Amino acid sequence: MNKNMNGFPANFLWGGATAANQVEGAYNIGGKGLTTADMVPYVPKSERGLNFAIDVDSNYIEKVLKGEIQDTYPKRYGVDFYHRYKEDIALLAELGLKAFRLSINWARIFPNGDDAEPNAEGLQFYDNVFDELKKYDIEPIVTLSHYETPLSLTLKYNGWYSREVIGFFTKYAETVFNRYSDKVKYWITFNEINMIGHSPYTGGGVLIDKVPNKTKAQISYQAAHHQFVASALATKIAHEINPEMKIGCMLARTQTYPVTNNPDDVQLALHQNDLNLFYTDVHATGEYPVYMNRYFAENNIVIEKEVGDDEILKQYPVDYISLSYYMSKSVAVDPEKHEVVAGNLVSNAVKNQYLDTSDWGWQIDPKGLRITLRDMHNRYKKPLFIVENGLGAYDKVEEDGSIHDTYRIDYLQKHIQQMKEAIKDGVDLIGYTSWGPIDLISMSTSEMSKRYGFIYVDQDDEGNGTLNRSRKDSFYWYQGVIATNGSEL
């Protein structure tokens, strides 16, 4: 248990987090293959509502590949980190980051996912990035799969719905573990693994329309099982290559409250928290929780396992648990009696009258972060790592080039204060990598105007702009937070 009663420990990893498909660009350079993210189009705000979610199907992909559809695909160009990584890492060093979370784009290493040999140019690119980080003593936190499944695996095998993909993933994992064993200590297998239940395409490269006579729930939980096994095997491989490597899982954590003290609402909130934490339950304990037996039975879900799967999960649990936290949500058994929250990536939620709401409909709840950290600490007794937290907002560039993002500072200050309280409560918290230290393409809407960064990137939703980088007010604020190890917020 963490004994720090005064605040953040001296070795706390202050950082920032990104994903390859949202920053790198260079989608067709250096031998990289196409990924599922490269097929997600930008849809103008006028054509989508707050609950908008991209639904890419096989017919759409086929038409894009044939040239019959020519949309704008922002994740193909990102913010050009591929060519500007030295400039960007220098800015991150000036910011004072002690850690930088990034992902390796699987298709940059194995362009088709199932290639016989890795792509040497892709491997060298990440060598260069890690060497640049080392120059500034910035610890890399590396995600193996962050919403960027090689498109070929989707077209040939239907992504993670196929058990065959486990072998391709472990080969990829072993390749990069061996290559970077002396450069990377902290790894994460799957980003927000529970996203596969919300969007099987995003989370696992799965095309629902390619699986007839199966429910979305059946498909997504089966694909999740394959990811669980792959994650456990990757953990095994990593520890064999270098016992000092730390392998983590990651959950998109949404603390769920009952909107009233009606026991039915309380029970519903408990159920939804269980469904959310199911993924970390498997990763951390090495077994499926008993409460899911009833859920699977009542929803006619059957998980197909091979002999030995349960033993693999049990033998190779993760070393630590990482999570993203942006908001909480409230639920009711009779939602029609309450004001509904309409927000991107928000589902089946009602308004919490005590919370403010972001421009994208996410209810801002700093104290919910302390609650969830306490809950996960008590549930798992493993180190925790907050690897995403931030505020997506519209930024205004003043005539003199300054950006006064006080709203972002306020959001982060309140969340970091609650992290400090959780550590005083005894939570073992490794670090905090804010999402994202530099403006990037939004995962959920593929837009640029939903900005998170301390560093502004001159680019609009259509990809126009100089790509010049500049510092926001929050840059200097976070710089001070890190310099004082969180004592001055």
UniProtKB/TrEMBL annotation:
UniProt keyword terms in alphabetical order: Glycosidase, Hydrolase
Family per record: Belongs to the glycosyl hydrolase 1 family.
Catalytic residues, chain numbering: E388
Instruction: Write out the GO MF terms.
Output: beta-glucosidase activity
Q: Does the keyword Hydrolase apply?
A: yes
Q: Which NCBIfam families match?
A: PRK09852.1
Record keyword Translocase present? no
Look up and give the organism this protein is from.
Answer: Alkalihalobacillus trypoxylicola
State the protein's name.
6-phospho-beta-glucosidase
Which is one Gene Ontology cellular component term of this protein? cytosol
Q: Pfam families attached here?
A: Glyco_hydro_1
Any one GO BP annotation for this protein:
carbohydrate catabolic process
